[in-house]
Amino acid sequence: MLNFSFVSPTRLVVGRDTHKQTGELIRQYGGTKALVHHDSGYVKTCGLVDEIIGYIKEAGVEVVELGGVVPNPRLDLVYEGIDLCRKEGVDFILAIGGGSTIDSAKAIAIGMKYDGDVWDMFIEDDGVVRAVETEPCMPLGVVLTIAATGSEASNSCVITKEDENLKRFCDNDLHRPVFAVENPELTMTLPAYQTAAGVVDIMSHSFERYFYNAKGGNEFTDRLCEAVFHTCMNCGRILVDDPMNYDARANIMVASTYSHNGLTGMGRVGDFASHLIEHELSGEFDVPHGAGLAVITPAWMKYVYKENPEIFLKWATRVMGVDMDFENPESTILQAIARLEDFFRFLGMPVRMSEMPEVGIIGEDVMRRMAERVRIVNAEDCTIGAFKHLNADDIVEIFKLAQ
What we know:
By secondary structure, this protein is an alpha/beta fold. The chain has 2 domains: 11-186, Rossmann fold (3-Layer(aba) Sandwich), CATH 3.40.50; 192-402, Dehydroquinate synthase-like, alpha domain, CATH 1.20.1090.10. The chain has helices spanning 22-28, 42-45, 48-58, 75-88, 99-111, 192-210, 219-241, 246-259, 273-285, 289-304, 309-318, 329-347, 364-373, 392-402; strands spanning 11-14, 33-37, 62-66, 92-97, 124-125, 128-129, 140-144, 156-161, 166-171, 179-182. Strands 1-10-7-4-2-3 form a 6-stranded parallel β-sheet, sandwiched between helices. A two-stranded antiparallel ribbon has the order 5-6. A two-stranded antiparallel sheet has the order 8-9. Helix 9 crosses helix 10 and helix 10 packs across helix 14.
């Protein structure tokens, strides 16, 4: 186990009718005038946004509203939000929605306290992530309506610069939400495809931490990751047949938060190559992030497992239920990856780019363009990943496996 420091300051408020506490929570964290940020979609048309605004006003908090968030949230709306908050004197931001809305709110919150262009925090210089100093960001809270990204308690924020099809992240503890309201009933009207994409995303956040390449054991965190996998697979299967199952929704929702608040990464180094590769796929073709991960993650596994087959064998036998083939351990791993793909298909997810209507069959030139745009995180050799360092040639091969 590696040395680590763990912090998760986000207050979770979980259960039925918890969204009715939103106004009082904002007051508790010093809010007097709140920006309510959402996607202008179902959360607005079904009346949820207006209902929550009512609770906020009952608590004596003024409200400014900004809709318009789209999947793979756009930088232009972040700029609009920053300008609006400054003009209106907003001192708290509330995101009502899922990861896209939360990330947009995070970018607005941190941009409010920065004199320069907020995009400075999302780009790199000469392949190295740019270091930007800023004041603590404006406090923000979340009313979660989809279990997926874990952004409700993570330090991560992902924004797309649409004119360049460029999707970039900013990891900063300053923009962790101060509270997250999680009422599983608010997720019951989600389309099955969105629920499934969320399950994949949750699993991926712990995959990125589980598959590490270091000597020494980390049994405790291994088991935490495995709990996320089992919860997502068991409850994901339930929700395919019974989408109104409260307990399955609740477990998936809590798994979303704890899969990406840092808990499953304690004492190990996260890989996150699959996420970085998928960012280029969704940046190029605007595919749903969870669907992209369903395609990229198994392909990444097939390409890298030989770097540390022991951890893949642990996952294959303890999570995927594959009997160990001692004469041919490699077949055990490949069977586990195949079972993972079968599970994704059962949920209704694609597992190949050719199965995605937004993508289809693409040429190696497109793969190369995306591979060369992936954000570099290992400055010493201009690669991504911790489990296996991957250069552009490696990433092209992963795209081919995902084709």
